[in-house]
Amino acid sequence: MGFNESTRAIPLLLSASLFCLLGLGNCDLSLNYYNNSCPRTEDIVKEQVEKLYRKHGNTAVSWVRNLFHDCMLKSCDASLLLETTEATISEQTSPRSFGMRNFKYVNTIKDALEAECPVTVSCADVVALSAREAVVLLGGPYIPMRTGRRDSKQSYFEVVEDFIPNHNDSLDLVLSRFQSAGINTEGTVALLGAHSVGRVHCANLVNRLYPTVDPTIDQEYAEYLKRRCPNPNPDPKEVEYARNDNETPMVIDNIYHKNLLSHKGLLLVDQQLVSDPSTVSLVEMMAANNSYFHEIFASSLLLLSENNPLTGDEGEVRSDCRFVNSE
Ligand code: HEM
Ligand SMILES: *[C@@H]1O[C@H](CO)[C@@H](O)[C@H](O)[C@H]1NC(C)=O
Ligand SMILES: *[C@@H]1O[C@H](CO)[C@@H](O)[C@H](O)[C@H]1NC(C)=O
Ligand SMILES: *[C@@H]1O[C@H](CO)[C@@H](O)[C@H](O)[C@H]1NC(C)=O
C-alpha cells in the first residue's frame, strides 16, 4: 500500500468499525476475513483486476457496475453472476442489466483464487473486492472492505426491477430505492458519480432526444448526442452509445457533477439531480470539491457493499461463480 493509500485509508477504517458498532454496517463481516484460510486473497484479486485492466480497460468499469447491480438487489451475494440454466433465469437477462459486459472475466479472477484455495473465497467477496480495486485503477479512493460474504443459492431475476431503478425513473423513486439499501441522499448523489466512467447505449438516451429534445439538455450537447444516436428507434443489438464523460472517460471524478451543472447529464436520472432543491446543492458541493465527492463515494460504496450480506452458514461458497454448487 502506498503512502497516499494508507493515509486515505485511516478515516475509512475508523468509520467502518464505528458503522458496525452503531448498527449501520455488518458486524459479521471482518477485515481480512481470509487471513488464515486464504491469506493471499486480496493480493490475488488485486493482481487479476490489474492484469485484466491492462488488457481490457473497461473490465474495471464493469466491476463497479457489478457491485451496484448485485448489492442493491436484496444482498451482496453474487446472485447477479448466476447464469441461466434449466432451473434459473439469470439476472443478467433483465432489461435493467442492459449493456452489462465482461462477466466472463469474473471467472478469470475466481479461477486464480480457486487455484490457490479451492472453494474458500466467495463470489460475493470477489464482486466487492474487484470493485474496490477497480475504483483505485479508475482514479478513485482506496476503500478498505470487510469480507466474509457468502453466495446465494438462487437468482432473483423476477424482482430485479423492484430494486434497480430505470434510466428514466423519478428522483423520489431513486432516492427511496437507495434509502432501502441504507444510503441517504448525499450518498446517492455521490454514487451516481460512477456514471463519470463508461458508456450509455442510445436505447437509454433517445427518449430525451426524440421527438423533441428534453429542454434540460444543453443545446450543443443535444446536437452531439443526436449525432451519436441518429435513430429514434435504435436497434438494441446495435453498438451505438455515448460516453458518460468525454473529458476523462476512465476516471471516477467530479466531472460528472460539473457536467450536470452545465446540463450535460446523460441519463434522465442523472440530469434530474440538478432539477430538485434536495439534491442540487449536493451536486454543487461535489462539483466544487473532488475530495469531498471521493469521501462520500467511498463511504457510500462501502455501505452498498455491505447491504444485507449472507454470513455464517447462510448460502454457500460457490466453486464456479456462474452456477450454484451441485449437492
Ligand atoms: C438510479 C440509479 C442508476 C440507474 C438508473 C443506472 C442506469 C444505468 C444505465 C441505463 C447505464 C447504461 C447502460 C448501457 O446503456 O450500456 C448505466 C451504466 C453504468 N452504471 Fe449505472 N445506474 C444507476 C446507478 C449506478 C450506480 C450506483 C453505479 C455504481 C456505483 C453505477 C455504475 C454504472 C457504470 C460503471 C456504468 C457504465 C457501464 C459500462 O460502460 O459498461 N450506476 N447505468
Ligand atoms: C493474521 O493471522 C495471524 C495468525 O492467525 C495473526 O498473527 C495476524 O495478526 C493476522 N493478521 C491480520 C492482518 O489480521
Ligand atoms: C422509460 O423508458 C422506457 C424505455 O427504456 C419506456 O418504455 C418507458 O415508457 C419510460 N417511462 C417513462 C415514465 O417515461
Ligand atoms: C474538500 O473536501 C474535503 C473532504 O471532505 C475537506 O477536507 C476539504 O476541507 C474541502 N475543501 C474545501 C476547499 O472546501
TrEMBL record:
GO terms for biological process: hydrogen peroxide catabolic process; response to oxidative stress; rhythmic process. Disulfide bonds join 38-117, 71-76, 123-321, 202-229. GO terms for cellular component: extracellular region. Substrate binds at residue 165. The active site is at residue 69. Ca(2+) 2 binds at residues 245, 248, 253. It comes from the Eukaryota. PANTHER family: PEROXIDASE, PTHR31517. This is Peroxidase. It comes from Asparagus officinalis (Garden asparagus).
